[in-house]
What does this fold into?
Amino acid sequence: MKVAPIELQRALILGLHTGQREGDLLRLPWSAYDGVSISLRQGKARRGGRLGRLSNPCTAALRRMLDGMERISLLILTTKTGQSLKKRYF
It folds into this structure.
């Protein structure tokens, strides 16, 4: 965390506190966060024919991070310029 750019720190915190896969994190929109939990549909579940819809309650640390972030895009994880964070940055 000490040497990682803020964008990767956020991705790490989001992944750690939700347990979601990289692809699901990269596509996670702000609309999935309601201030208490994150609701999402897992990408892998769609391929299996299941809905895969789930809701993860946010930990205090995750809520603090999300509430402190500026919403510059429809997606939560972005670059400094507001572009969607790409898989290659991971």
The chain has a mean pLDDT of 88. The chain is about 35% helix and 10% strand.
